[in-house]
Amino acid sequence: MITLHHLEASRSFRIIWLLEELELSYQIERHERHPETMRAQSSLKAVHPLGKAPVLCDNGFTLIESGAIIEYLLNRYDTRGLRPPISSEDYLRYSQWMHFAEGSLMPPALLTLVLNKMANARVPFFARSIVKKTVNSTLEGFVMPDLNTKLDFLDTELGNTGWFCGSHFSAADIQMGFALQVLHGRGLVGDNLLNIKAFLEAIRLRPAYQRAKEKAGLLTLSLPGKNESQEPKVEPSVDATSASTTDAAR
């Protein structure tokens, strides 16, 4: 039996989603976050020394890192074509996005969370303005321009087919979809990025995504002072409904 060690508002959502897409039997072991630090509590360190989610246990083997777990599950269990043939051009795009999600998109998402926590942290009065000025200059001068450039690029790419890898849904959409959900949930995806918004609508309409959301709970941590941790409600558009229905029929 596949066992997934899951931490709410973590990358383990990707794995629950993939397991649902593959319609595999599995069990979830849930772990809690510390109410102050928001890090995983000690129960997860008992499973793996790093104490981070996801952790997948299968056939006597323990595996970490969401990208590696996705590849393992596809290698062993994929009967639904969620990864293109390795000799195809689509596979090159698939590989690119599997790495882009963690190498390029998640770092600024983490930076915005950390910097906003710094700006709202309790510090001595005389240092408060210095901290906020440093945080704002870092966000405005580096983090947000870099993130917006990447989001503009992704919006253009999604304008081709609506998916990240060819004309059909793939595991690359799971890898990238989680990262974009995190950014959208923190209010960092502008209203002008219509192709990203349509993509988010399309993945939320997938039955496997909806089942995963019910099982996973909270999807992302909110920025301090904001209530953005709940997934934004998006009304399905005609195009998004069409994309989901067409792909589900494959």
Automatic annotation (TrEMBL):
Q: Which UniProt keywords apply?
A: Transferase
Which top class of enzyme applies to this chain? transferase
Q: Name one Pfam family in it.
A: GST_N
Q: What EC number(s) does its UniProt record assign?
A: 2.5.1.18
Q: Which reaction does it catalyse?
A: RX + glutathione = an S-substituted glutathione + a halide anion + H(+)
Segments traversing the membrane: none
Q: Name one GO cellular component term.
A: cytoplasm
Q: Where is the GST C-terminal domain?
A: 87-236
Q: Which domain of life does the protein's organism represent? A: Bacteria
**Which GO-annotated molecular functions does the record name?**
glutathione transferase activity; peroxidase activity
Chain intervals for the UniProt region annotation (Disordered): 220-250
Q: Which residues form the GST N-terminal domain?
A: 1-81
State where composition is biased (Low complexity): 239-250
Question: PROSITE patterns from the xrefs?
Answer: GST_CTER, GST_NTER
Similarity remark: Belongs to the GST superfamily.
Q: Protein name, please?
A: glutathione transferase
